Amino acid sequence: MGRLIEMEAFATVVEEGGFSDAARKMGVAKSTVSKHISSLETRLGTHLLSRTTRRVCPTEIGLAYYDRATRILNDAGDADALVTSLHSSPSGTLRVSADNDFGIHILAPLLVAFLNDFPDIRVEVILDNKPVDLINERIDLAIRIGTQKDSSMRARKLTQTSFRLVASPDYLAAYGHPENIEDLAHHTLLQHSNSVGDNQWKLPDANGKLRQIRADGRLSINDGQSLLTASASGLGIAYLPEFLFRRGMDMGHIVDVMPDLPVMQQCVNAIYPPGQFTQPKVRALIDFLVGNLSR
Length: 295
Hints:
The protein is of the alpha/beta class. The chain folds into 3 domains: about 5-85, Winged helix-like DNA-binding domain superfamily/Winged helix DNA-binding domain (Arc Repressor Mutant, subunit A); about 90-160 and about 265-295, D-Maltodextrin-Binding Protein, domain 2 (3-Layer(aba) Sandwich); about 160-265, Periplasmic binding protein-like II (D-Maltodextrin-Binding Protein, domain 2), CATH 3.40.190. The protein is built from 9 helices and 13 strands. The chain has helices spanning about 5-15, 20-25, 30-45, 60-85, 100-115, 170-175, 225-230, 240-250, 280-295; strands at about 50, 55-60, 90-100, 120-125, 140-145, 155-165, 190, 200-205, 210-215, 220, 235-240, 255, 265-270. Strands 3, 4, 5, 6, 7, 10, 11, 12 and 13 form a 9-stranded mixed sheet that branches. A two-stranded antiparallel ribbon has the order 1-2. Strand 1 (about 50) and strand 2 (about 55-60) form a beta hairpin. Helix 1 crosses helix 4 (about 60-85). The model has no long low-confidence stretch (mean pLDDT about 85).
């Protein structure tokens, strides 16, 4: 006989106070319950139950065994429920954190199709450039650009984006093209500010070596679209991801300031809590984003 069924029979007898009621609850014969208890006590070499004419009660050892057995049975039930959920249709509320720029320009438009594909999922999106504590803030999934700093979390690459220095043709006509990274010190640099920023741009030089440039410009905004608008208006040079500048560049509103510099690529990752299993709703969104962003 399996240990779990013996544990279940024992726990049910304790909870119901007798073999007959336990058998009724389990939907088996009283003799079957009795066999399970007998097998369990024989295997453990001790009495777990004290039988009286009115009621069956656990012994001191039986009470300690009951406490541990119920925890094991609960864990087993949770494991069964987890496997069932992994095979079921994705559903429930999905809390997603994303950087402002990526969330507005890339994630939000894609969610229309995602919600149509998964009608049983409800999505709550939190747009913020600040780091988030996924566990304490009950975030199911965070989407972040760049290196993942918390190694305890799992990450899956969704896509990648390139960063370029951009400015309007009018600005460059007035102030000239910088010919190297050092020349940027003589230009107006537009800074993307956020809670973790240190006013530093990290740019690859002509040899591919990463250089840090302090971007102390006259304008600081914590929104990429606003920086793009400012740059296109001739206020200065911005350092932006392709998903923000591509349309404006195609329309001629902005140009690549230093096209000979190596392109800086950064990964866009889905970050989610550690664990052996991934919730179906989380897995559904990650797979959807990978499929749509890799096109």
